[in-house]
Amino acid sequence: MLLTITTTHYPATDLGYLLHKHPDKIQTFDLSAGKAYVFYTEVSEQKCSAALLLDIDPVGLVRSEGPRGNDFALEQYVNDRPYVASSFMSNAISKVYSSAMNGKCKDKPEKVDVAMPFSVKLAVLPVSGGEAVLRQLFEPLGYHVDAIQHPLDPAFPEWGDSRYFTVELNHVITLQSLLSHLYLLIPVCDNDKHYWIANDEIEKLLDKGKGWLETHPLKEMIVRRYLKNQRAMANQALGVLLSKDESDDTDEEVSSETTEALTEPKPKIHELRLLAARDQLLHAGAKTVADLGCGEGRLTRLLMQEKQFEFILGMDVSYRALEIAKDRLKLDRLPPKQAERVKLVQGSLTYRDKRLRGFDGAALVEVIEHLDEPRLAALERAVFEDARPKTVVITTPNAEYNVRFENFEDGKMRHSDHRFEWSRKEFEDWGNGIAACYGYTAVYKSVGEVDEEVGALSQMGIFTLKN
Amino acid sequence: MLPNKSIQIPELSLVVLIGATGSGKSSFAKKHFKPSEIVSSDACRSMVSDDENNQVASGDAFELARCITGIRLKNGLLTVIDATNVQEESRRDWIKLAREHHFLPVAIVLNLSERVCADRNALRSDRAFGAHVIPQHISQLKRGFKKLKFEGFRNIIELRSPEEVDAIINIIRDPLYNNKKQEKGPFDIIGDVHGCYDELVKLLAELGYLDNGKSLFHPEGRKAIFVGDLVDRGPNTPAVLKLVIAMVESGNAWCVPGNHDIKLLKWFDGRNVQIKHGLERSIEQLVNETPESREKMKTFLDGLISHYVFDEGRLVVAHAGLKEEMQGRGSGAVREFCLFGETTGETDEFGLPVRYNWASEYKGRAKVVYGHTPVPQAEWLNNTIDIDTGCVFGGSLTALRYPEGELVAVKAAEVYSEPVRPLDYEKTSALNLQQESDNVLDIADFTGKQIVQTGLAKNVTIREENAVAALEAMSRFAVNPKWLIYLPPTMSPAKTSSLDEYLEFPTEGFEYYKEAGVDKVICQEKHMGSRAVIIVGRNEEAIGKAFGITGEGIGTIYTRTGRPFFNDKETERYLLSALNEGLTTSGFYDTFDTDWVCLDTELMPWSAKAQALLQKQYAAVGASASHALHETNNALGQLLKRNIGGNELANLFEAREMETARFVKAYQTYCWPVNKPQDHKIAPFHILATEGKQWTDENHEWHMEQIKKVCLAGDETLLATPYQIVDLNNDENVNDATNWWLNLTEKGGEGMVVKPYNFIEKNAKGVIQPAIKIRGREYLRIIYGPEYTESQNMSRLKARGLHAKRALALREFALGVEGLQRFADKQPLRRVHQCVFGVLALESEPVDPRL
Q: Which residue among A113, A356, B620, B645 has the highest number of C-beta atoms inside a 10 angstrom radius?
């Protein structure tokens, strides 16, 4: 919320001209989300400090109508936005210091291109990725970075550090460059919800990044974070910015999920599981098949490509996933005969469901491990006793393989929503129990590359109803 | 003029009018039936084509008529088909439809002369079809008339002249023989006797029946109901028959036929039956009976009605049970079902037919009591009970006392017949039938728009989109649904305070109740932790018995959305055992005559459950705000030294820094480190349910005092909640409570909950809010932000609507109480889960979460 810019370039009072703000006045500016004040804390020819103070209206943020909307999240009145340097600060910089940012100075135009010693203080700056990211962002541009990371609550040291830093940056640089760097890199550090994404953001990005962003080692991260959650826009911007080199699907955004979970080699293994499940259903001669826990419809799509399958049901408990599946499979646009072949429904495998009766085959690809183990009893009955498909294909991770992952830790699972991961024996014991109880035969196969000691990445059980 | 005449038809008839065009069918229908009972082909033609004479539309019109009729019959409504129906093929469809719904097809034939029909049509301008039509109709009618009986019509009424038609002044609807709805009991329903005379006499004596020389009777007027299979296999079939006949004839009993009874009847009739499965013994025993006696038995068996519906439709007795759609109806299929039940067509390893367990899918309102299949124990399943406990096979003869629900049984003196299949075959689980069946619920009972009938709020409607959300939450995160007998309702705050510096204040809470007509309330300290519903039993066995859950410990702790409260099972186990200890030591289990209890509680510290929220949000805001404001105030301090103004700004931000400090202090109050399970605190505030009982009939003071006893007997994790009883007409009382709140909240307490003294309080408008929360000024900083107390913020925040929140609270409360009641009544889990699922679904309604 506070940005202080200090220079010791003689005469330091030139800062007033460069910023186009009178050193002896306290000026107020209206912003969409509140107010900004500019005042000087120190004014002499040796040293001059200008402070930009934001006064964000937290109630207004929630109550006002606007593109932010009101999605009834509890955090809205209680959030850090009023206290941190975020996209609001960038907004304020471009509004309050616009002439300086554009390299204009009415009274002393000759000073614009002079590199001066500047010291910038930000209180406080949230940095996603911590001090390392902060340094990687500013140091390549020549800044000397001093940062104090604040604990979440000194009364509860066990809660650890917060993502907030009081930051001091020192550099000999032109004011225009300095402001451009801040303008882009503050929201990049923050990497939280931005309160603007307009169509001219790409232009602004390219404009403010001119002359330095092209060669910045973290340029991709900067673009992606700046255009947060606007993947298409980010790719477009990168295309403009980069000669097409390594800009593949390598997303540096480390989501909370993957930091807590082991990372499977992507994307092959999941594809292999889907293909294996499809092949088993084909092999079983199934004509009507159910993709149980279809998620966003990847297996359903594979099944649709096979003429053998006359009817395909995709079921998932997540309505959102089904909406995505519906989109991806373009169900609305299929010709009527094709559309009749596929149906997506919301359902849950912990309830019995008449709609699932009478299928030749069913696949549960990476489904069972998302249920608490005690709830599996309900799934068993729903699938094997009530729905009773002739063939059931189930895949699940092979927990033994986890030791082969680079970031292996004991007890850590491959996905934060996995409730358990089984060894081959555990899976087979469970499967054999089911087969005996409900009159099926069970066969087990490996999916993915097989390690002699710990088995394959994934395991598959094929259950066939006895006559 | 012919004399006035009435005709009689069964109450559940599909009346097919038959007659040529112009024969006066529509007038006849209008005269004798309600407009809603008449499905007219003309009207349907008109609806689908705008022209009631458009013959081209007949196909569509028939489809519509069939659809309407089908729905009416499904709903048990007499229906009249007003169409010519002169051709056999057009009648065939109606007969088929009537049979599908177990209705009796009745034909009323208007067999009038061609001249009468032609004259009538001539009066109507819209009936200008060819002259050949009427003679054709009449000839078709006459040709088919004789065959009507063979087509399947049960009653055929022919009217041959306009005079005969006019003479009918009344159509009497006869109740079906099975309709005994006016008989309300009490009853003693007795299972398959199979000639076990001694056991029957003993059972009747145990039930209190006395001998008056002619028959047995009950001095309190109870009636016996026999579920059939009186005969075969056992030692004295004739004596059993004579006893039952005497009781039925003297009005002391009812009896429905079993398959064995009907087979014996066939033998009496001299029909070809296989003399086996115990029939041979009956025949042997009947040798000594006189012809008169045998004739009497035959007549009795011949007169038995397939099933009975008693007590306003609340009780159905049939030998092999009866599906809902067949109850009270008459058809060959109904009779077959009553005698044999439903079979899958397969046979089991003993060569016996595999029975399709209709009861596992039964969802009817009526209790169904039946026999036919010997079971080791009579057990309820989805409101049905099989009371054939295999007396003749050496089991016992069982009676169900209705409406008491009590089972009375007499052991068989010996094994009279060896069962082909052992009695306890299939009994592998420790759970009872209902619990076994409840292991997996049917999704169809919960998806789509749901309407739940509750005792408190009549119907609560769950919208489809909310059910969609609840299904996901329930499936992915919730504990075993068998645990989920209750989810707590949301709670509304008091109206915004009229005081400038407070958003909420006790005055408005008290006012709400006073305006609602309540004079006495209870104020309970509101603990700032996380809501937790706790179920705990004496031991795993108690839980298995009451909840049908095995291997999941002596209880559970779940959150207000049904998720497991603790990921760490060790902590849960500790807390449950600590609570169990308190319950045992305080004598709770004995006092309440129960082996388990379900409690509504607050579990602390808040930081234990809300760790993520604290770290991501509350502590984060505290950390960012305090450091940012600290730097800001430093800068403003330097500015002030320059003497160019800025005082106002400096004051503003100085205040902010103080507010931030208070915000941090507010959340810190609710946090303490948890290093061991004992660091938690449990504060129970409602005793929700114990064995066979839910406790919302008791007032809150009773709840608080009962809970206090348990807390005092338990260890330091149990916390009794301080409370005050307030007489709202006593100003001193009100002042004391207000000061109590001020005192609590100034020390950092969350606030208090005001509840009517009685758990459930109603006024003319219905149930009133079961609780209103009044949150402290400091606490509210963590809801509305550190700076909410600044006047420019407060004035805006005071504009908040409570209507949606309060409506939601009432609906959830009604569902919550209903679910507990259903569980206490031992209803199928499906019925309990509907309520709990409903609360979860309603929670996905978009309501301001800060309220």
A: B620
Question: Which amino acid is located at B510 in the chain?
Answer: F
What domains are there in chain A, each with its CATH number?
Answer: 2-196 (3.30.1610.20), 268-465 (3.40.50.150)
Distance from CA of B667 to the nearest CA of A (A): 11
pLDDT tens by residue, B663-710: 999 999 889 888 888 999 999 999 999 999 999 999 999 999 999 999
Count of the separate structural domains present in chain B:
5
Which H or E run contains A61? helix A58-63
Q: What is the pLDDT of residues B152-171, one digit of tens each?
A: 898 899 998 889 999 998 99
Kindly determine whether residue B447 and residue A40, on different chains, have CB atoms separated by under 8 Å.
Answer: no
pLDDT band at A196 (very low <50, low <70, confident <90, very high): low
Structure tokens at B405: 């629900």
Is B463 contained in some domain? yes
Could you give the 3-state DSSP secondary structure of residue A115? coil
Whether residue B434 is contained in a domain is answered as no
Average pLDDT over residues B237-262: 96
Instruction: Give the domain range for residue B843.
Output: 448-490+804-851
Cα–Cα distance for residue pair A148/A168, rounded to 1 Å: 9
Residues of A in contact with B622 (CB under 8 A): 152-153
Contacts of B635 in chain A (CB under 8 A): 2, 4, 39, 41, 51, 53
Which residues of A are less than 8 Å from B615 in CB distance?
Answer: 152, 159-160
Chain B residues near residue A372 by CB distance under 8 angstroms: 564
Residues B415 and B386 in one domain: yes
ipTM for the predicted complex: 0.83
What is the C-alpha to C-alpha distance for residues B10 and B102, in angstroms, rounded to an integer? 12
Same domain for B507 and B486: no
Contact: B471, A59; criterion CB under 8 Å:
no
Strands A311-316 and A288-292: parallel
Assess contact for B139 and B112: CB atoms under 8 A. no
The answer on B307 and B402 residing in a single domain is yes
- C-alpha closest to that of B773 among B794, B797, B747, B802: B802
B166 and B302 co-located in one domain: no
Q: How distant is the Cα of B616 from the closest Cα of chain A, in angstroms?
A: 9
Same domain, B474 and B506: no
Q: Is residue B441 part of a domain?
A: no
Which among A51, A83, A348 has CB closest to B475?
A348
Residue B88 within a domain = yes
- A83, A158, A316, A370: best to mutate for the B interface, most B CBs within 10 A: A83
Nearest CA to CA, how far is B581 from chain A (Å)? 26
Q: What is the pLDDT of residue B616?
A: 84
In this structure, are B405 and B505 located in the same domain? no
Pick B620's closest partner by Cβ from A39, A162, A346.
A162
Residues B589, B573 contacting (CB under 8 angstroms):
no
What's B401's domain CATH number?
A: 3.60.21.10
Say if strands B79-82 and B210-211 run parallel, antiparallel, or are unpaired.
Answer: unpaired
Residues of B in contact with A151 (CB under 8 A): 623
CB contact under 8 A, A124 and B624: yes
From B367, B320, B361, select the one nearest B341 (Cα to Cα): B320
B635 to A4: CB separation less than 8 angstroms, yes or no = yes
d(CA B522, CA B516): 15
Identify the DSSP state of B769: P
CB B168 within 8 A of CB B2: no
B625 with B709, same domain: the answer is no
CB B703 within 8 A of CB B719: no
Is A351's CB within 8 Å of B442's CB?
yes
Residues B25 and B109 in one domain: yes
Contact list in B for residue A124 (CB cut-off 8 A) is 624, 627-628, 631
> Is residue A366's pLDDT more than 60?
yes
